[in-house]
Amino acid sequence: MTQGRLQWFSATAPVAQAYENRRRLPMDTQELVRFLQAIPLLKGLTDHDLHILAMAAHRRVFQEGQRIYDQGEPGITCHLITRGRVKVFVASDEGHELAMRLLGPGELIGEMALFENLPRSASVVAVIPTETLELDQETLMRCLQRSPALSLSLLRAMSARLRHTTEEAEGLASLPVPERLLRRLQRLAEWSGTRVEDGIRIMPPMTQQELAALVGASRESINRALVKLRRQGVVRWDDGWIVLLDNAHDVLS
């Protein structure tokens, strides 16, 4: 994890070469175009534009726990998630995670740095095996210039993401930690949970530090909150996994 304050860099040749050395895999263009057609963000592009985008994109494969990019490094590409899940977070001067979002297929990450020509404001890591389509700045800008509808769609998506983050933060700020944690766990269960006999097993498995970053609390507070929720019978542990039990909805109601 990047520690210390954000550092300013230039997109030097060694950095660009590092991107080139990442694994590239072939992908059937027509299959990729069909995938792109289903993404709401790209609804403004014609089939011809989507074909150009598919030809320009590079498929990337990231293993669980592998960094996609780090806070503070140059922002020279963005990624469209096609499979898997990623965690977006920022770090304090001491290296602790301060904020976190989880994103999945159809989400675009890293585009802000391309517009601002600034270093990455956050780090992104794959939480399960993940595949992305990597687009460089020139390709993205060319697509935006060709399609005003895509530009509007991207602006709406960025605005909605910011509004959702603000509203969610305001809504959780006044709640005690156990209730904030329970609401986050419910959201994770809806987003990427797996049904088991008595509830929803939350995927991927998360440490108390990761839960603390997600909720905006200390690890110690999360530990106490988990103990309380277990005593209330709304969560349980299953070989390191958190299971949100079926009666959790009654507690939130």
Structural summary, described in words:
The two termini are 38 Å apart. The chain has 253 residues and is of the alpha+beta class. Helix 2 crosses helix 3 (47-56), helix 5 (137-146) crosses helix 6 and helix 8 packs across helix 9. The protein has helices at 13-20, 29-37, 47-56, 111-116, 137-146, 148-173, 177-192, 208-215, 219-231, 248-252, and strands spanning 58-62, 67-69, 77-83, 86-91, 97-103, 108-109, 123-126, 130-136, 193-196, 199-202, 235-238, 241-245. The chain contains ten helices and twelve strands. The longest helix has 26 residues, at 148-173. Helix content is 44%, strand content 23%. It is elongated, with a radius of gyration of 20 Å. The strands form three sheets. Strands 1-8-3-6 form a four-stranded antiparallel sheet. Strands 2-7-4-5 form a four-stranded antiparallel sheet. The protein has a four-stranded antiparallel sheet with strand order 9-10-12-11.
